[in-house]
Amino acid sequence: MYLLLLTLHSWGRWAVLLGLLWGLGQAYRGWWGGRSFTPLDDTLRHGVATLAHVQLTLGYGLYFVSPVTGAFHLRDAVHAPGALFFGLQHVLAMTVAVVVLTIGAALAKRRTPDAAKFRTMALWFSATLLLVFLAIPWPFLPWAPRPYFRL
Predict the structure, then answer these.
(1) 77-114 burial code (b ≥16 CB/10 A, e <16)
(2) Half-sphere exposure of 21 (CA within 13 A, CB side)
(3) How far out from the chain centre does Cα 60 lie?
(4) pLDDT by residue (tens digit) across 23-80?
(5) Which of 97, 121, 134, 138 is the most buried (most CB within 10 A)?
């Protein structure tokens, strides 16, 4: 169970990142180019939020079965920065990122002029992407290195 969740969660990050980048590209092009908000744009807005929710759900499942977070105690976190990252920082930052994305997607849906929809989507998705980039356990991080792809 643990290895399956770990692999799905590891590969799911790329789907979320690609979806966010695609959504951002569409949002900024629509905002700056004066395009109309099409059903494809709306599907993309909703699809990226859905992907992020699935990824968060996989992450929560992983959080509760992982030996890394199972052994996490806040009082020992000073001596184990990797445990602190996965036990607190990663899950908290990613939860906040998905909340920000959800708020942005909901606000964009409710805006009436198309430029306002694109602007809202662009700004909130940008904030989400920043949070996600900061919270991913990249291979170059000294406290929590993880591979780009798990096999």
Answers:
(1) beebebbbbbbebbbebbeebbebbbebbeebeeeeeb
(2) 7
(3) 13
(4) 999 999 999 999 999 999 999 999 999 999 999 999 999 999 988 777 777 777 767 7
(5) 121
